[in-house]
Design goal:
It contains 13 helices and 13 strands. The protein has 294 residues and is of the alpha/beta class. The strands form two sheets. It has a seven-stranded mixed β-sheet with strand order 1-13-12-11-2-9-10, sandwiched between helices. The protein has a six-stranded antiparallel β-sheet with strand order 3-8-7-6-5-4. Bound molecules: adenosine-5'-diphosphate and magnesium ion. It comes from Flexivirga aerilata. One of its GO terms (biological process) is copper ion homeostasis.
């Protein structure tokens, strides 16, 4: 493409809410054949609310929220915001000491003198805090519906399961159809539970074989590297929460403009409005500018 065509292409992109870092980015769109999609905040809205509170026999839901909410108040995770907001509405939060975020697993700390954990059941398992039959059933039921569930425990015992509702964006299924039309193979990547990931994949038309779930933040980049080692040319769309390294590793990184500054920094293209349909549009526009397609 001529320099003028490139400028027209990037100018047209800006009108559509597609910010392209430089003309060299267009070239990367030519051979891309795979598009990795981060789940939370990319395929789903990432705006979570507390949907259900399940407690073990003898536990008080208000006390569970006081404990869990206090810890989550110190975390930036969308799950944490949902729990802290609901807890604040229900009453006062406990006093936190020794807060720690355990990336990809949850949070821990001392609340009102109790050692509290909130996160994946695997995190509680590490402290021999196991969900009883009822809590396990509540967990399985929620995750089977595609909802995210986290466990709450303190003083050596699992006490509750909190169900957080995120939802698939109305535009995600269409966005993924458009990607397929461009010859791209969509892949879902998430730290969330296998069942949630497969339910969401089914809702948006991603093949079960192309779901990578329960991937720790530090391992997301390895998924991209492995696909590249298999000869795939990889685009990745993310919001920068836990996926900035993977965005940077991808042959073409696309940041949701609604995401973090880190994402925008690590990416080649920013989708200003956070509309996933525009990801395919950006690749189509770039290819058209290069004269690869009409
Ligand atoms: P995603 O890839 O969907 O953005 P993350 O890697 O951020 O997910 O988190 C993976 C999982 O770890 C979450 O689904 C949740 O079960 C647990 N988790 C992470 N942070 C928290 C937190 N602050 N509170 C509770 N659970 C958490
Ligand atoms: Mg994320």
């Amino acid at each position: 493409a001529t320099p003028t065509a490139l400028m027209v292409g990037t100018g047209r992109g800006a009108q559509l809410g597609i910010l392209i870092k430089g003309p060299e980015v267009l070239e990367q769109t030519r051979t891309v054949d795979t598009i990795v999609l981060d789940k939370t905040g990319t395929v789903t809205t990432g705006e979570m609310t507390l949907a259900d509170t399940h407690v073990a026999a003898g536990e008080d839901p208000a006390f569970v929220l006081r404990m869990a909410g206090a810890l989550e108040d110190a975390s930036e995770h969308p799950i944490a915001r949902a729990i802290a907001d609901a807890a604040r509405e229900a009453g006062a939060l406990g006093q936190v000491e020794d807060f720690a975020n355990i990336e990809g697993l949850g949070v821990q700390g001392i609340v009102d003198g109790h050692a509290v954990l909130v996160g994946r059941p695997q995190l509680l398992d590490q402290w021999s805090q196991y969900l009883d039959e009822r809590l396990q059933a509540a967990f399985d039921e929620a995750t089977g519906r595609g909802q995210t569930a986290v466990a709450v425990g303190w003083d050596g015992q699992a006490r509750a399961v909190l169900v957080v509702a995120d939802r698939v964006k109305d535009t995600s299924a269409e966005a993924i159809r458009r990607m397929r039309d461009l010859g791209l193979r969509p892949i879902l990547l998430t730290g969330d539970n296998e069942r949630v990931a497969h339910t969401v994949a089914g809702q948006v038309g991603i093949d079960a074989a192309d779901v990578y779930a329960e991937v720790l933040p530090a391992d997301k980049v390895d998924v991209v590297t492995r696909l590249q080692a298999d000869g795939r040319v990889v685009a990745m769309v993310g919001d920068g929460v836990n996926d900035a390294a993977a965005l940077a590793q991808a042959d073409l990184g696309l940041a949701m403009g609604t995401g973090t500054d880190v994402a925008i920094e690590a990416s080649d293209i920013t989708l200003v409005r956070g509309d996933l349909r525009v990801a395919g549009d950006a690749i189509r526009l770039s290819r058209r500018t290069l004269g690869v397609i009409k």
